[in-house]
Write a structure and sequence with these properties.
Layout: H1 3-64, H2 77-89, E1 96-101, H3 113-124, E2 131-137, E3 140-150, H4 157-160, H5 168-174, E4 187-196, H6 198-249, H7 265-288
Antiparallel strand pairs: 1-4, 2-3, 3-4
Helix pairs in contact: 1-2, 1-6, 6-7
Length: 289
């Protein structure tokens, strides 16, 4: 096995190990950054919905409460926030917001199976303020962010304690079987935001492929440059010395001396070779005389 082959095998081994370690680290970081980006988007959606709830409760509801014989769903913070986020879905159809409730007044707010699990997790862990996870949706992987819905305002029980205390118009619109029996400080549901992960992950994978392709391209260029340098600086001089030594071993002393200018190892080797050649030539001359 030649020197060049050994050098190239060692270089390939080092590159393969380096590429594997770099690939693992970069892929992990890119995937984490993609998930962080999705989480930020989910957080913005959650804050937007919560802001709409607060605005409705403080500015809209008081102005609509003067109509005691009517029930306007628009005055309910949960309804207003859901409607606003539904408008967002007209442009971003895979982005979801829902106020998932175990026993809702409006049937569209009823929690499905996985949402019920999230709500029950909040109910069983009073100290939990937020739950985040990843699930498979029809559009692919989606990240969900959930926060508990807790009855902290006694005024909410006016509509949700018993049907006879609720506005008659609300009972007429939604019926008297759902959305009642709530208790103060009870966790009745969760705000749930679902954001697709497909695009950020696709961008992360594209960036990973581009990065690894660029890294491989740089290695190929360096591999070629190092081989050219190895050939001119080491392999060819050593090959010439080997051929010269072979000629000298057969008695051919007409081989020209090697250039030994410089202070690197090849120059020192050339000086030593020339000195050995001259010594050998003198020894042979003495023997012949």
């Amino acid at each position: 096995m030649g020197l060049r082959t050994k050098f190239n095998l060692a270089l390939l081994l080092v590159f393969t190990i380096g590429l594997a370690v770099t690939g693992y680290i970069s892929y992990t970081l890119l995937q984490k950054n993609a998930q962080d980006e999705v989480l930020r988007n989910a957080g913005v959606m959650m804050e937007a919905a919560s802001s709409m709830r607060v605005y409705t409760q403080t500015h809209v509801s008081p102005k609509l409460d003067y109509q005691p014989d009517t029930f306007l769903a628009e005055s309910v913070p949960a309804f207003a926030a859901t409607e606003m986020m539904n408008q967002l879905r007209k442009k971003y159809e895979n982005y979801y917001y829902k106020e998932a409730v175990l026993n809702p007044t409006n049937p569209r707010d009823r929690a499905v199976e996985w949402e019920s699990d999230v709500v029950n997790e909040f109910r069983n862990g009073a100290d939990k303020k937020e739950i985040m996870g990843v699930r498979m949706a029809t559009s692919g992987q989606s990240l969900y962010l959930a926060r508990p819905l807790k009855i902290v305002d006694p005024g909410c029980l006016t509509c949700h304690s018993t049907p006879d205390k609720a506005p008659a118009a609300m009972v007429t619109q939604y019926g008297g079987n759902n959305g009642f029996g709530w208790k103060l400080n009870e966790t009745i549901g969760a705000q749930v935001v679902t954001v697709p992960m497909s695009l950020p992950i696709e961008n992360a994978n594209r960036a990973f492929v581009t990065f690894m392709g660029s890294l491989t391209g740089v290695f190929v260029v360096l591999f070629l440059i190092l081989n050219i340098m190895l050939s001119f600086l080491i392999v060819k001089p050593i090959t010439r010395m080997s051929e010269a030594a072979n000629e000298i071993s057969t008695g051919n002393m007409e081989i020209a001396e090697f250039e030994d200018k410089g202070g690197d190892e090849m120059a020192l080797l050339a000086k030593s070779f020339n000195r050995m050649r001259r010594s050998l030539q003198k020894a042979i001359s003495l023997i012949d005389s």
